[in-house]
Recover the amino acids of this structure.
């Protein structure tokens, strides 16, 4: 590759999104790319020409290793969505103008559905206008809802965080309950797809009974049925644990968090901002049963928990970044690297590459055959699928008792 | 020691309370104690004669190691408070009757202020009635509010969890904020003492600016001043982070969570049950400034996070358990093992033993000289005190991608 490259990160960060950045960076170094630029806050920062020279921050192999162990988007993220091409050519022209100025040959965007849409639009525009730049998508999302690829980098680590933390709070919850049980309701991320909430099942083992009920947004949530199940469990068990997705909905289409009259609002991508589903259920169950309840929201902890990231996930995140750079070097554009699992146990993967048009804006839900008929659990098929994704650890570099991170200093103050 | 021993765990669990159990168990094994009993759910279970033979569950050295890595109270906990002796002799007589039946020579209670009160009452009763049994307290509390001892086992690991997790969510929070910052408010446990919230300062290092504001319950919380500070920070920074204790109060004595009209109730020990202080502040700040806000409550995650426990803490927890057993063997009663720090850096500790009467029911707040005058931060004196307590890690035993725990099977179903 003769020109320079630029890489950006977009959407909700993950525990391993920086491992993908490290992968792109390392491959570019191996390929002898002159300048490896980073967009500060994705396309939004790029349009403001807020561009950094990555080599100034990632100076050696130790920095690469710390970058792999750093949560959140090192370069900063954004939720900016490119407008449709027709009638908005000036935005695209500006993008290409900046790319020309920095002699950028390939642009990499690490992200989920919306980010893959950005790659699609840019590669479409380049094809329409005969531009020479190439565009590659690097998959990233804790939501695991990208199609074609077996799973998404970022998912395995969030799933591992959820399974491990749930195991710990299940132990905590079972420590009391001598007279009557505490009902613990854990709220897990995932607006439309229940992949993350399904990971609650990975806490089950001979030393942990796991959650008693798991509710994914793929199924309608029935409060009366839920209440009956809690009442039943509470006379049998000293600890009742529920895992529920932030996105679960009632039959009338309202979110469960709206049971309590909670407000919600819409973000720049048109997604409803949700919160408080576990709190809503905990308060309602307490009122309806008199049981002691507790709500825990794993919140951003679940996507930032790099200290307990999955080694398989970190490595795959690195590899998709690395391979995206290699593919772009070979002339590919408008594509995304995919992960193909050739064997579940022992776990073996290979990587593919796929046309972005079949990926952008498509959301993959948890398959119906992996959800129990009554909608309160996930089945063994899911566990077999997900178990290898959470295996292995990469020891954090502990300094002063806490994990060390690589940080873009300029990100601190505006 | 000719007789048997019994050990119980009480109050809120910690990440290392089982390491103290392992310490008592190991010392008793070394002393050749015949039967090492455990109370299932503390004194409350003991009074119901719900007693287990620990050797049936902790079978070998590997089990001891897994026990040290298991969060929450292995034996189950309780919040039962012994009634005052006068007029309630029948409760005490029953306790001693059961001890006689099981030929128990020494009773160990691992817990905080309320548990030390139990040891005081039992040893007072034994002294009054000329009973031969001995009673030893083993300190445990994430709250770190026991007097005499330099710090309490359980605190270091919770502090490490808080510092490490806060570092991660601070990175996450700083990933957006290109247009306007997100105000992240993290709620940390601690009803009366701000020790845990102070640990938020331990996230600060060259790679992390730490929280912008830290509010302990030792100081009155002024919402108007807080609002002014948030407004000021939000024009200077791309990410604003606040650490706040669940126990902070307004000048009129109400808890901050009551700003939003939140309900509260009183538990068996007369403590107000609190929640939602961060959510209350996040909602109010959003309404008053239009800024995007997010609330995270570390909840029981912070006391159950054994996977990132402090090695110093695990070892000290083990040692206080071990030494309590040794001291009882030497004839001591009505006392608690204490930790004395002889040097902060490099860290050196020794252990002492102290009369329980000066410990029970006394709460140690964060010293005023470690809190900034404006009440929005903690000072270097605290950091110097707390840093060694979070140092070191004990690798979890990872099985199927999650930490392995030792579990009392009978605790699952009632």
């Amino acid at each position: 590759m003769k020109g320079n490259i630029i890489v950006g990160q977009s959407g909700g960060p993950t525990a391993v999104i920086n491992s993908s950045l490290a992968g792109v960076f390392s491959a570019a170094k191996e390929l002898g790319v002159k300048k490896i630029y980073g967009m500060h806050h994705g396309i939004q920062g790029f349009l403001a020409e807020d561009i950094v020279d990555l080599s100034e921050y990632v100076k050696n192999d130790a920095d690469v290793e710390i970058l792999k162990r750093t949560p959140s988007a090192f370069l900063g993220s954004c939720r900016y969505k490119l407008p449709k091409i027709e009638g908005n050519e000036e935005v695209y022209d500006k993008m290409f103008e900046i790319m020309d100025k920095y002699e950028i040959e390939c642009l990499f965007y690490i992200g989920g559905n919306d980010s893959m849409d950005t790659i699609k639009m840019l590669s479409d525009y380049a094809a329409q206008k005969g531009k020479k730049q190439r565009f590659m998508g690097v998959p990233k999302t804790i939501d695991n809802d990208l199609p074609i690829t077996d799973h998404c980098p970022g998912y395995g680590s969030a799933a591992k965080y959820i399974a491990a933390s749930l195991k710990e709070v299940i132990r905590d919850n079972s420590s009391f309950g001598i007279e009557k049980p505490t009902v613990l309701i854990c709220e897990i991320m995932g607006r439309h797809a229940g992949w993350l909430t399904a990971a609650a099942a990975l806490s089950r083992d001979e030393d942990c009974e796991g959650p008693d009920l798991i509710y994914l947004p793929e199924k309608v949530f029935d409060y009366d049925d839920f209440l009956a199940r809690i009442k039943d469990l509470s006379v049998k068990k000293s600890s009742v644990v529920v895992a529920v997705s932030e996105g679960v909905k009632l039959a009338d289409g309202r979110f469960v968090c709206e049971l309590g009259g909670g407000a919600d609002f819409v973000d720049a991508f048109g997604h409803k901002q949700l919160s408080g589903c576990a709190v809503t259920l905990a308060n309602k169950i307490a009122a309806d049963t008199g049981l002691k309840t507790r709500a825990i929201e794993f919140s951003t902890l679940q996507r930032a928990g790099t200290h307990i990231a999955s080694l398989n996930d970190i490595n795959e995140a690195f590899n998709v970044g690395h391979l995206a750079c290699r593919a772009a070097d070979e002339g590919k554009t408008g594509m995304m690297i995919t992960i193909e699992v050739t064997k579940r146990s022992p776990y073996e993967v290979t990587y593919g590459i796929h046309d972005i048009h079949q990926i952008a804006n498509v959301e993959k839900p948890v398959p119906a055959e992996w959800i129990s008929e009554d909608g309160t659990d996930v089945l063994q098929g899911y566990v077999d699928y997900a178990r290898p994704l959470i295996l292995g650890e990469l020891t954090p570099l502990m300094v002063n008792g806490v994990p060390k991170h690589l940080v873009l200093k300029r990100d601190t103050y505006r």
Remarks:
- The domain at 4-154+308-360+393-411 of chain A is CATH 3.40.50.450 (Rossmann fold).
- Chain A has two domains: 4-154+308-360+393-411, 155-304.
